[in-house]
Amino acid sequence: MKTDSTLIISPSGVRGVVGKGLSPDIVAKLACAFGKMMGEKILVGYDTRTSNDMFKYAVFSALLSVGCNVVDLGICPTPSLQLMIKEMGANGGIVITGSHNPPEWNALKFVRGDGLFLFPEEGKNLIDIYREDTVKLSPWDRLGKLSKDNSAIPRHIKKVIQLVDCEKIKVKRFKVVVDACNGAGAFATPLLLEKLGCEVVKLNCEAKGNFAHLPEPVPHNLQDLSRIVKEVGADIGFAQDADADRLALVSERGEALSEEYTLMLACNFVLQNKKGLVVTNVSTSRAIDDIAAKFSCPVKRTPVGDIHVSRCMREKGAVIGGEGNGGVIFPPLNYARDGIMAAALILNHLANENISLSSLVDSLPRYYMLKQKIKNLRVDFEKLKQSLRSDFSSHELDFTDGVKILLPEGWIHIRASGTEPVLRVIAEAKDKKTAENLSRLALDKIFSFRK
Asked: What is the total count of domains within the chain?
């Protein structure tokens, strides 16, 4: 992976700060490489960021120049584009979205013909083509053609509704506040909820790209949503990131829940109806193991990144999976993180249980998780791992992604982010004090290996 303060190019895509690391020429070169690699028909969608008019035309031009026929899906959630690739028989797709990153960031996500993101080995091949810079452009009479299709969101919602008990949800007449952060879910999620018979209160549901708060759906960014849920007496609040592949929740009490609860609730609901394998990443809460054990179901963990989870789910035949960042993957729809599908599953769960969200959450295993980002720190990771092997030789260490230390009182996970130039440190335990102690232990160790 190549990283600096403003650009990250890795097998999972490219992202950076607009006008600094990320520029139209880089975007165009990557799109050329992708078009040459994937084939004739490519779908393009994007979130609402103000830089997307600049980048979408760079992507269109690049794909057309290598002979690809481009279908412009307009502003749409990432999972909508992933679903449309299969629906339309396209060879692949590009989503222009900075996802959960701040508004000055943007990125390209590259999608295969089966609706999954590029596998790591394919992403590496794409980067090799990009760096070789030898893509041959098509002559004037073999250029691709550009067309427009506005059906991605309606088709996505229609399929979601078919996978839940729509009538049971409608009977409940849930009052729901939606905070789409003025992102790609601004139209899609309220439309879904209206079709499910909900009374919808819209917050930041204008697809204008001027985010009302940082788009990552973590409790700190959901203060307005929490306040509105209480003020209007809503049953639940939903928050999504800029491309709507993640979902976070606010209870009827106005409590912003850790995004870990989204996957917990989805697993709890799905496993009641169909037992089977659950797949998640190594950074997700241990509560997932507890919930799966309640239904006598196995859990498999992968490296962080939805492609690792999606790929494993498909290969192993999992019934539910996702990541603890609010990303739920439901195979009957698609092997993609989907904040719209997640909202429907959770409403179905509430309708079945006939209790409040806070009561449902209280019935789940309770852990305390502390997530931290360390910016601008260079660490000798190999020496750090060697030291951790020695210090914790009597405990289980997992090197699936970075290093995870499993202790009787909890766990610590240390890894370099693939989406931001930061080091991520996560600690989880049964109580706040123990989690804080574990986090402090990890940070002390990390800083002792600063370069």
From this structure: 3
